[in-house]
Write a structure and sequence with these properties.
alpha+beta, four-stranded mixed β-sheet, globular
Length: about 140
């Protein structure tokens, strides 16, 4: 890991500390452009915003998809205090960002938060394939 990458991860930690100080989960992220400049940064605001989706990775992925051209997004790197959750990983995949660098893995985070596991939501399907496919056939994202 390069010195600048360490500096960017440490900034993500500072953002995470700010989030925790405001009563939110301790998570922070920043986007660094292809030239090494910080484009945007954010912190977790799930509690203060009353929004379970207000993760910094998701907010920055949305910002990047809205504000960056495809080339800049592809050359950008997100530095984040923890490995993105499934929701955020899905948004990152669609955002066009080129790279994510994280500090704690999801497993390490679970080890640091014993008893914090949530029950899985039951999922069923697929169903009604012929009807469902008609809605999406030919759609190219």
């Amino acid at each position: 890991m390069e010195r600048d990458e360490e500096r960017f991860l440490r900034r993500a930690f500072e953002l995470a500390e700010e989030a925790r100080g405001e009563g939110n989960g301790p998570f922070g992220s920043l986007l660094v452009g292809p030239g090494g400049d910080v484009l945007a940064e954010d912190r977790n605001t799930t509690v203060t915003d009353g929004d379970i989706t207000a993760h910094p990775e998701l907010k920055l992925a949305r910002w990047a998809a809205r504000e960056l051209d495809a080339g800049t997004a592809a050359g950008a790197t997100m530095y984040t205090s923890c490995e993105p959750c499934g929701m955020c990983a899905g948004a990152l995949a669609r955002s066009g960002l080129g790279r994510v660098v994280y500090a704690l893995s999801a497993g390490q985070l679970r080890d640091l938060q014993p008893g914090a596991a949530r029950a899985a939501v039951r999922s069923e399907g697929p169903h009604l394939y012929d009807e469902a496919r008609r809605v999406v056939e030919g759609y190219v994202p």
